[in-house]
Amino acid sequence: MELLFVTLGGAILGLGLRYALPGRERYGVLLLPAVGAVVASAVWAALTWAGWKFDGGWIWVVSLVAAAVVPALVALQVSRARRIGDEKLLQTLSRA
Known about the structure:
mainly alpha
């Protein structure tokens, strides 16, 4: 049951980051919530396999912090890459 809650928390954090970070017009609505959910559940599973107790506080902190940091990095990287790609495409189409 805790895995479900941490996955939902990761998705909610990703959704909040979508509207908090710049460049959201360059990627889809579900990208960051999906990344947040996947990261939160993967970190949670890895930490439980490593022996961390599922009812401890630190497993929640680490999982949710990772679920906030990784989507933020993904958003910034994808936004930058799409901006550069769009500028190159505009230059290519302008020459034709």
